[in-house]
Structure formats: structure tokens, C-alpha cells
From TrEMBL:
<keyword id="KW-0223">Dioxygenase</keyword>
<comment type="similarity">
    <text>Belongs to the TfdA dioxygenase family.</text>
</comment>
<feature type="domain" description="TauD/TfdA-like">
    <location>
        <begin position="17"/>
        <end position="281"/>
    </location>
</feature>
<protein>
    <submittedName>
        <fullName>TauD/TfdA family dioxygenase</fullName>
    </submittedName>
</protein>
<dbReference type="InterPro" id="IPR003819">
    <property type="entry name" value="TauD/TfdA-like"/>
</dbReference>
<keyword id="KW-0408">Iron</keyword>
<dbReference type="Pfam" id="PF02668">
    <property type="entry name" value="TauD"/>
</dbReference>
<keyword id="KW-0479">Metal-binding</keyword>
<dbReference type="InterPro" id="IPR051178">
    <property type="entry name" value="TfdA_dioxygenase"/>
</dbReference>
<keyword id="KW-0560">Oxidoreductase</keyword>
<dbReference type="GO" id="GO:0051213">
    <property type="term" value="F:dioxygenase activity"/>
</dbReference>
<dbReference type="InterPro" id="IPR042098">
    <property type="entry name" value="TauD-like_sf"/>
</dbReference>
């Protein structure tokens, strides 16, 4: 294993000659430290089957199967498939996932600690994912906003981005919406997390999933506070040129691990409609979502 360089343009560190099969416990521990402190680790030249990919994810935490089976790879419920590829045998996975600012499972009681992302088929151009480091976004907030969000909580829901399943055709929309609210009821998380490993403070909101902000007693705070936070953190800039936004680009064989507490991401979907497919394994680690505030 060789930890080489910071990837060009992106923020990640690049690792060559990593083999999930022969990796020692020390190597995995070192990679985990880099993952939390550098936030993105790119393992290059990987050629893994489904079971090997799940095993690799397991080195970084406990894999969790996505709650909606429509995304599952036929050989493993732990592999989430994003794909616009139609096969003779029918479709696998879901097209055009995640093309909005979010953190994976932020709308669930236990959001994932780490996302392991493994592109299988890349478009000719526009290979990559946009990221915002929400520790940096927190530090860059105006003092007014930093003060205003002390001791507050946000509410998160997937409702705007839940995909209609093929079997839902002809169902009344009200019934589908009621089912979404029942399966994935809104969750409340602190607006500012303390990262359990790095100790950094993170602004924990996303344009896709966060829909309300409230004080500790549950009293609603103005919606303009939330939209100001989204704007200052860079999430309302549809040109993606806000200084907080960076593009991490991929080469074939790259397997990308990221810290899903600290980073929010937005998929870059190719306008040319090239065939693309990616696999992901998401894991929980041994730490709670948010660490203790230093006393
Ligand atoms: O289809 C999608 O874009 C999936 C999204 C609503 N959730 C991904 C996640 O892990 O939170
Ligand atoms: Fe995602």
C-alpha cells in the first residue's frame, strides 16, 4: 500500500497498491485515520467483485442495506446501485440518484458514517462528484449565523427525493405520500455536530433533506434562517462555483471512500445521457452520529 498524493483538483488522498484481501490491520487503521482527517480516500486500480466490495466496506464499519430494495444489487442487499443501464434481463438499480446536495441517510435515525463509492461505468465526460466540507462551511459562516444556530436542531426528510417505484403506477399520490411519511418519518438532528473522531464542528444541513430549524424546546425558527445557512454554505448555487464547492473527479478503477458526516455531496449527472453505473456500500462506525461537546 502506498499513500501517494493529494488527488489533482480534489481534496482526497490517493492510495495505490491497496488490496482488501492482503491489507494488514495497521494499514486499515491508517486508512481510517486518513478517511476521517482528510475526508476523502481514493483507492486506485481496484477490480473487486460484489462480495469483495462488501468485504472492503466492512473494514470501515458495519454495512447497512438501503431501506428500499429497488436499489439493491441482485447479488447483495448491501450494494446500492445507481444506473441508467437497461439490460436484457431487466433493469438493476435506479437512474439519476443523488443529483442534489445531501448526506446519505441524513433523513434516518442513524445516518451512515462512511460512504464507499465504486463507479462501474463512467461517462465520457463529467466524471466526478461535487462535495462541500461542512466543517469548513461552519467555520466560514458569518458570526451572526453561527450565533443564531447555537443549541438548535434541524428536521430532515427524504420526501422530496423518494423515487416512485414501478409498482406504484396508478396509486393515488396521497396514499404514496402517506406511505413515505410512515416509512421515513422526519428526523431531528443537532444543527451543529461535533465530529466524534476529529472533534471538528460541522454544519449538518442539506438542501435536499433539511426542511426546518427549531430551538431546543422544539419551537420553530424562521425559514429564512435555514435558507441563509444553505446559501452561505454554497448549496443554493446551481452553477456550483461557490468557493466551498469542489469537484472530486474519478478515473476507471477508482474506489472512493468519504466521511459522510463531514461532507455533503451532489452527483454530477452527465447531460449527454451516456450509460453510467455505480455501486456503493454505506457503513456505520462504532461512534454515535455526534460526539460530546468539549466541557
Ligand atoms: O434515489 C436517490 O437519490 C436516493 C436518495 C433519496 N437517498 C440516498 C441516501 O442514501 O440518502
Ligand atoms: Fe448520496
Amino acid at each position: 500500500m502506498r499513500i501517494d498524493t493529494r488527488t489533482e483538483g480534489g481534496r482526497g488522498i490517493e492510495v495505490r497498491d491497496f488490496s482488501a484481501v492482503t491489507a494488514t490491520a495497521d494499514e486499515v487503521a491508517l486508512l481510517r485515520r486518513h478517511l476521517y482527517h482528510d475526508k476523502i480516500v481514493v483507492l486506485t486500480q481496484q477490480a473487486l467483485g460484489i462480495a469483495e466490495f462488501v468485504a472492503l466496506g466492512s473494514a470501515f464499519g458495519t454495512p447497512v442495506a438501503y431501506y428500499e430494495p429497488m436499489y439493491h444489487h441482485p447479488d447483495s442487499e448491501y450494494v446500492f446501485v445507481s444506473s441508467n443501464v437497461d439490460r436484457d434481463t431487466g433493469r438493476v438499480g435506479v437512474p439519476k440518484t443523488g443529483a442534489f446536495w445531501h448526506s446519505d441517510y441524513q433523513f434516518m435515525p442513524q445516518p451512515f458514517a462512511v460512504t464507499c463509492f465504486y463507479p462501474q461505468r463512467l461517462p465520457a465526460a463529467g466524471r466526478g462528484t461535487y462535495f462541500i466540507d461542512m466543517a469548513q462551511a461552519y467555520r466560514r459562516l458569518s458570526p451572526r449565523l453561527r450565533t443564531a444556530i447555537e443549541n438548535t436542531y434541524c428536521r430532515h426528510s427524504a420526501r422530496r427525493y423518494v423515487k416512485i417505484r414501478p409498482d406504484d403506477v396508478f396509486r393515488p399520490l396521497g396514499e404514496v405520500i402517506a406511505e413515505v411519511e410512515h416509512r421515513t418519518p422526519p428526523q431531528r438532528h443537532p444543527t451543529v455536530l461535533r465530529h466524534p473522531v476529529t472533534g471538528e464542528r460541522l454544519l449538518y444541513i442539506s438542501e435536499a433533506f433539511t426542511y426546518a430549524i427549531e430551538d431546543a424546546s422544539g419551537k420553530a425558527l424562521p425559514g429564512t434562517l435555514l435558507s441563509d445557512l444553505l446559501a452561505e454554505s454554497g448549496q443554493l448555487d446551481d452553477s456550483c462555483s461557490h468557493p466551498n464547492i469542489f469537484l472530486q473527479s474519478y478515473e476507471p478503477g477508482d474506489l472512493v471512500l468519504w466521511d459522510n458526516r463531514t461532507l455533503i455531496h451532489r452527483a454530477l449527472h452527465n447531460p449527454g445521457n451516456d450509460r453510467t453505473e455505480s455501486y456503493r456500500v454505506t457503513v456505520l462506525d462504532e461512534f454515535p452520529l455526534t460526539g460530546q461537546e468539549a466541557g
